Amino acid sequence: MNVSLDQLPHVLIVDDDKRLRELLSSFLAVNGCRVSAVSGAAQARAQMAGMAFDLIVLDVMMPDETGLEFAASLRSVGNNVPILMLSARSETEDRIDGLSAGVDDYLAKPFEPRELLLRLHAILKRQGQPETARVDVAEVRFGKFIFNLVRGELRRDGEVVHLTTRERDILRILAQRAGEPVARADIIEPSNEDSNRAVDVQINRLRRKIEDQPAVPLYLQTVRGHGYTLHVD
């Protein structure tokens, strides 16, 4: 299935649980979504200031500002982006609180990812947005390498290549948009702990693991004035 990136719904995940953010990012990416993920409301606002999202997957219990407070603040300024709220609380009163804050749907943790996807579909359909399109493969191949986007696993000739967490995250971002230029701003972590220079350093380390000649990269190439692109088979 050939689907233009612009045709895929862009989902923003807001959850302070890093593991859950990564799992949801991988699952939604291979089920036809563009995905951005942040750990809190302040980072979400920063992301929303620079780009539009079709839907927000929002956790309730977060430090500094809860999901309920964040949802209510968006609605108070007329921002009607659809919100699917996640919470470990499943009591009726908690669901009422979420819906009262203006969220579109409420899903209790733990949940089955397929149910989340179905609820996401339903919200997008009600909003008249394009539904997700299943991506035919969950892995990309380049040369002797295979990278599995779901597991974040890189193999060369069948042998696992060790990646740091940051290297894996960067490779997943590039693989999700394989063949397209990816700006440094899309690679920098929302916490702003990474500068452009830090991203360049991580890219160089990643090249040493996947390129025979890192100084003359074949797969992970620089796009002058923009960022990087990953060329796959």
**DSSP summary, beta strand count:** 12
- And the CATH topology of the largest domain? Rossmann fold
- What do we call the CATH homologous superfamily of the largest domain? Response regulator
Total number of distinct structural domains:
2
The second-level CATH architecture of the largest domain is: 3-Layer(aba) Sandwich
CATH class of the largest domain: Alpha Beta
Helix/strand/pairing category: alpha/beta
Radius of gyration: 18 Å
Please write the string of helix (H) and strand (E) elements: EHEHEHEHEHEEEEHEHHEE
Span from first to last CA? 16 Å
Helix content: 25-40%
Quick one: overall form? elongated
Q: Please tell me the overall pLDDT.
A: 82
How would you describe the overall organization of this protein?
The protein has 233 residues and is α/β, with parallel strands linked by helices. It has two domains: 5-127, Rossmann fold (3-Layer(aba) Sandwich); 139-230, Arc Repressor Mutant, subunit A. It has helices at residues 18-29, 41-50, 67-76, 92-100, 113-127, 165-176, 184-187, 196-210; strands at residues 10-14, 34-38, 55-59, 83-87, 105-108, 139-142, 145-148, 153-156, 159-161, 182-183, 220-223, 227-230. The strands form three sheets. Strands 2-1-3-4-5 form a five-stranded parallel beta sheet, sandwiched between helices. A four-stranded antiparallel beta sheet has the order 6-7-8-9, with helices on one face. The radius of gyration is 18 Å and the shape is elongated.
